[in-house]
Amino acid sequence: MKRQSALVVFSGGQDSTTCLFWVMQHYEIVEAVTFAYGQRHHLEIQIAREIAKEQGIRHHILDMSLLGQITAQPDFATIHISYIPDKLCVESKSLKLYLFSYRNHGDFHENCINTIGKDLVNLLDPRYLEV
User: Fold this and answer.
1) What is the β-pairing status of strands 27-36 and 3-9?
2) Catalytic one among 75, 86, 107, 119?
3) For the chain, how big is the Rg over CA atoms in Å?
4) 75 in catalytic set
5) End-to-end Cα distance, the chain
6) Residue 30 belongs to domain spanning
7) Whether 20 and 62 share a structural domain
8) What is the number of domains present in the chain?
9) What is the pLDDT of residues 78-127, one digit of tens each?
10) How much is the pTM?
11) Less crowded by CB within 10 Å, the N or C end of the chain?
């Protein structure tokens, strides 16, 4: 006997599509939700839309840029770092890899900047640092 209803977080990628089809076998009523947050792979959203339509599933696409309006925070940011090293310096490639780890980090810009500044001070003990 199938359960009554389920909501699937559906990106349109392989993993969420597999989950969607599993849920369709085990639940009577299935709806899907996709979060549009400015991702580089917009094609997945289109694929999610097409799969949901083909399967006769109600599909909701939520525009996550609205969160910026609620929190008054931008959904993107720029980081500028200026420092004068003391005994230690950071290699530019290492710094880029470290900063890249924040790409999909779910936090406010100010919190990220503070953490980056503290991490660099703890690691390098620079004469001067501005983040």
Assistant:
1) parallel
2) 75
3) 21
4) yes
5) 58
6) 3-70
7) yes
8) 2
9) 889 999 999 999 898 999 999 988 887 778 788 889 999 999 999 999 99
10) 0.53
11) N
For 32, what's the count of Cα atoms within 13 Å in the CB-facing half-sphere?
27
Encoded tokens for 43: 């094609």
Tokens of 59: 């599909």
Spell 67-88 as b/e; 16+ CB within 10 A means b.
Answer: eeeeeeeeeeeeeeeebeeeee
On whether the CB atoms of residues 45 and 36 are closer than 8 A, the answer is yes
Tell me how far apart the alpha carbons of residues 129 and 53 are, in angstroms, rounded to a whole number.
Answer: 53
Nearest Cα residue to 125 out of 83, 63, 91 = 83
Instruction: Summarize the annotated binding site for substrate as residue ranges.
Output: 90-92, 109-110
Among residues 70, 101, 122, the one where a domain terminates is 70
Residue 24 lies in a domain: yes
- The Cα 69–Cα 85 span in angstroms is 39
Q: Is the distance from CB of 8 to CB of 32 less than 8 angstroms? A: yes
Q: Identify which of 116, 82, 123 has the alpha carbon closest to the alpha carbon of residue 99.
A: 116
Binding residues: 90-92, 109-110
54 contacts: CB under 8 Å, gap ≥ 6: none
